[in-house]
Amino acid sequence: LPLGELQKKKKKQQQQQQQKAKPPPKKTTGSSSSKKAAVAPKKAKKANRESAFYETQRGKLVQHLLRRWWYAIEWPSAAAKAKAPEANFETLAGFPGVHVCTSGPRLGELVDHRDHDKCPCFANYFDKPTADVKALVLRAFDEQIKQLQNAEGEQSPLLKSLQQDRTTCSRVNEKKADAEAAKAIKSYNK
Fold it and tell me: Rounded distance, CA 36 to CA 27, Å?
């Protein structure tokens, strides 16, 4: 058979396999718009709960921390960064501690050696005590301000804004912020 005929035959086989793999269309009884209407308020309610937490003092501290975490938190750990890739794996550029398989049967597979329990993300910081979050935020601001001054000097247009944000964060009352966050988390978990 000519090469063109083989390609057509293979393409036809692939299409047949795809059609077999597709699930049959769902049969609906009744109006689907009423189902959508019931789901929409649930999503809106969840979004309102999340935004309620973000409006708390601790929520604002967490947001400030997540904007500049690399100034205060070492992640991934040095051990994860130093882990040598397996055979046929290479370090994924821009993602220390992650390796990608470049040949063999595992081609394209990722191996992630980073500790996700310590990853700087909302899920790992929203329920931490305000004092801990505040200390990390202030450390991050201090390091960011120091590096900015070294790079651009005292006349940097961003410097004043950073200093104001740092001052605002330093004035957060930890006990009040914890009580406020506890209410928001309680409604968030309902």
Answer: 16
